Every structure is written in C-alpha cells, then in structure tokens.
Amino acid sequence: MSATYTLIMIAAMTTGAVLSRRSQRSLALSGREKLGICLGAFCGAMIGAKLPFVISDPQGLLSGAAWFADGKTILCGLVGGYFGVEIAKWSLHLRIRTGDSFAVPVAASIAVGRLACFSAGCCHGTPTSLPWAVVFPVVDQLPRHPTQLYESAFHLTAALVLYQLGRRGLFHGQLIKLYIIAYAMYRFVSETIRPEARLWGNLTIYQWAALLLIPLFAWLWARDGAEPRDRAARQPAT
Fold first, then answer.
1. Model confidence pLDDT, tens digit, residues 127-141
2. Within 10 Å of residue 196's Cβ, how many Cβ atoms?
3. Which residues lie across from 143 on neighbouring strands?
C-alpha cells in the first residue's frame, strides 16, 4: 500500500466525518445516540465490504485470515452500512429517520476514496482504445478504462444532486435509498467494462448483487413511504 493511497483514503474518511458532523446537527439525538449510529454504520460497512470475499474463501473463513486479506466491495459496503445503522437504531430504541444525513457524506467520501484506487491501479477497467485510456503498470501495459475515475465522477455527481434534493425537501427520508438504487444501477452498467469473472447469464457477481438490491431497496422505500399513511389512518377522528 503506497503512501499516496493511504493519504487519499485518510482524506476520504475525513471528508465523510466532517460532512456527517454537519449533516447530523439537525437530528434530535443525543451525542451517545449519534455515536451509536455512526458506529453501526462503520461496522456494518466494513463487514458488508468484506463479506463477499470472506464467503468466497472457505479456508480463510475458517482461519479468520480472510477478514484481513485484500479485497473490499463498495456496493456491499453501502448495504452493510445501511443495515448497520438500522440495527444500531433498533438497539437504541430509536424511530427517527437518519438516512438523509448519511447520503451526501457517504457519496462524497467514496468520490475521494476512488481516487486512491486510481493511484494504486486497482479496480481498473478492460482494455480500450479511447483517448482517455490509462496504462496501469502494476497490471500490464495495456491502455484501460479508468473506471476508478468514472466511479469517482458518479459519486461526486450523486453527492451534489443529493445535496440539492435535500435542500429542496425532495425525497425526504429516502435519499440514502435513492443513492443506493442509483449506484446499483450504475454498477450494473459499469461492470460491462470491468474485467470481473462472469457467472450465470454472463453476468458478474456485482451485477447479480445489483439485480437483488434494486428491488430490495425499492421495497424498503415503498414500505417506509407507507408508514406515515398507516399511522395517519390509525389516528382517531377529531
């Protein structure tokens, strides 16, 4: 791991921490509750990001070494972070919606973090003759899609769009779900220019994950949207 990679990752985590601190000021939560939710997000994201690699390495799973080996996935990390927050809120007996406060910080943090991947040459794309192709010497001498930069641009754009939606009160309480669904769609498409192993139906494991996650988060969105209506319907008439 190079010093450049480390410094960029520190910048990414700092970006997320600073923006989260600002976005969570308006939440009616105590410092202890905010800390618990942030810990839930962090632990869930770390477990989710590693889980596919751990499951695919049975020997490493038994020894515990798989948890400390290289390899993480942002897509599953996002989902793990989401459910980590939900578990933390359940354990703290909280009903308040917190997803909107995470959407912009997470997107901005990943936008910066993908630059670390670019500096290290990991998560690269397939060979291409496009004029902006990049050679990653740690891989080979072939010009390749700089998929790390594509993804950084996606997350930066997402952060800006989510910020504007939040300011205007649009999709209130659903911004994190909107972000995860949009990223799953993006990832499904971008996998076509990534050299990942093809599984059933000539799709990668990330494309299959996206096909599962999009309807799951669409259902969570619909369920959460129905809750206020259900509560209103149960209120006695006055």
1. 999 999 999 998 899
2. 13
3. 135
- Structural tokens at position 55: 């499951």
Q: How far is CA 236 from CA 132, 135, 225, 227, 228, in A?
A: 63, 67, 21, 16, 15
pTM across the whole model: 0.86
Tokens, residue 51: 């889980």
Task: Write out the DSSP string of 189-212.
Answer: HHGGGS-PPP-GGG--HHHHHHHH
pLDDT value at position 159?
Answer: 96
Cβ-based neighbours of 102, under 8 Å, separated by 6 or more: 20, 23, 41, 81, 85, 176
3-state secondary structure of 144: strand
Q: In this prediction, what percent of the chain has a pLDDT beyond 70?
A: 86
